[in-house]
Amino acid sequence: MRMIYRLHLSFALLLLCILAITAVLIYPLLLNTLVDDHRKELRDQAGMLMNISPVMPLTSVRQTNAESSTNTESITSSAPLIGNTSAILFAPGEKVVYSTLADEATMELMELSKQTDSGGIWQGKDDQYIVETLTARQVGQTDSPGFTAVMATPLSKIKAMQVALFERLMIILSIGAILAFLLSLLITRKLVKPLGDLRKELNKVESRRFSEVRLVETGGEIGEVAKAVYDLAGELEKYQRTQKQFFQNASHELKTPLMSIQGYAEGIKDGIFTGEHAEKGLDVIVKECERLKKIVTEMILLAKLESEDGIFHMDRVPVRELISETLERINPLLIKNGLRIEMSGFDNGDEWSIHADREKLLQALINILGNAARYANETIRIQTSRGIEGISIEILDDGEGIPEPLLSQLFQRFAKGKNGDTGLGLAISRAIVERCHGRISAHNEADGGAAFVLRFPILS
Predict the structure, then answer these.
(1) Between the CA of residue 139 and those of 60, 114, 332, what are the distances in Å?
(2) What DSSP line would sit under 403-421, residue for residue?
(3) What are phi and psi of 37, to 5 degrees?
(4) What is the DSSP string of 211-252?
(5) At residue 118, what are phi and psi to the nearest 5 degrees?
(6) 384, 391 in Cβ contact below 8 A?
(7) Cα dihedral across residues 123, 125, 128, 131: positive or negative
(8) In 10 A of CB 140, how many CB atoms?
(9) Distance between CA 130 and CA 123 in Å, rounded?
(10) What is the pTM of this model?
(11) Contact 88, 110 (CB under 8 A)
């Protein structure tokens, strides 16, 4: 079953359970509430009957039939009874002053009033009745009873009112439940539809159609996941494009020396190159073999740097010592090109350290300095600083700078300038720096020349 149908079914069952629980709890509560309210009304009516009685306060209990009739009419007009309420008002000696029942029922109700103190449920011949009894004392005689009012209402009428109220309440709750269910359909659709769209985009990722992936426009956590999938597809597309470009460049870089080797080898074999020409051909073959060996070695090294974890041995590395050793190793190249080094950042004798693999980071710096030595005119500057972002090592040259088309892909495999070697040196440097928890970037200075910036976290 699809998720949207499961959600609809679950919400519908939840609403039905709520309605059922509400019905079970509310139905008896309505009856108790109505009975309590009606008892209060009966007590109020009994009090009104006794207060407006013309024979109270009592001085004598003897009355004629005419007086009794007059009292009944007076009471009925002054205190009208609500609903099917029955009332009896009798004086001491069980003399009935006022009654709405037949004689037999009146006597039954009077007998019942003697058995209950305040009221209860009385089982009559044809129905149950709610009965309330109220007795007043005679004026000046606190020990002798006075008038007694007995009020009774059929329980069936209260139950009919209970059923009517319960039906109206359930209708209102059912309408609310239907509206809530309709609203849930709308909300669920808005919730599940982006998931369906996201599944389609993931299918594109699965089939490697990264360029066709589109951003699913929605909010909340689903929107964040959709944005992550879209960014992932972009990174995979970039990676796939880089891999294709890598194989194209690798095949080109390997094809050129192989063609030279094959051409000179066949020429020497067929006797086309002899004597001095054969010697030159053999020299070319040796040089191209060395070049092939270097390219393959760097390709293998780069693959290991990006995939293997055990080849890095992290330790505390002092920055001053690292730069000094780098300059010692690259000094012959600097002397050959007639370049001088300017350093800044250690004037106060600060000793800064980073957490890295010393030998591999040394190789990364040699690659970057070698690249700067290839393009610098006279000077290479090395600036070190410490700030909020960490420790920075900046290497600048006074050459022509990096061509803008090359700047965005400078650290990719086989990306090289006009005087480049294999195009793998800076890619290797990037892999080393990043595996040492650092960052590397390049830009052109405003006054000319290229700048490479390496940033590393401060070692605590």
Answers:
(1) 11, 22, 132
(2) -HHHHTTTTSTT---TT-S
(3) -65, -40
(4) GG-------HHHHHHHHHHHHHHHHHHHHHHHHHHHHHHHHH
(5) -125, -30
(6) yes
(7) negative
(8) 9
(9) 9
(10) 0.48
(11) yes
Give the Cβ contact number of residue 52 at 10 Å. 13
73-86 pLDDT, tens per residue? Answer: 444 444 455 556 77
Chain segment 397-430, per-residue pLDDT in tens: 988 888 887 887 787 776 766 666 667 788 888 8
- Give the residue among 308, 302, 258, 245 at the shortest CA–CA distance from 284: 258
Angle, helices 220-269/155-206, rounded to nearest 10 degrees: 10
Residue 317 CB contacts under 8 Å (≥ 6 apart), including other chains: 353, 354, 355, 356, 358, 361
Chunk the chain into consecutive blocks of 10 residues (it has 460) and report each block's average pLDDT, rounded to whole numbers: 72 86 87 85 80 46 42 47 70 76 76 62 71 69 65 83 87 88 80 80 84 82 85 83 70 76 84 81 85 79 72 85 89 88 75 86 89 88 86 89 81 69 78 88 86 85
d(CA 401, CA 447): 10
Ramachandran angles phi, psi of 181, nearest 5°: -65, -40
**What token pair was written down for 27?**
């139905």
Find the angle CA(113)-CA(83)-CA(135) to the nearest 5 degrees: 25
For residue 55, the Cα-to-chain-centroid distance in whole angstroms is 79
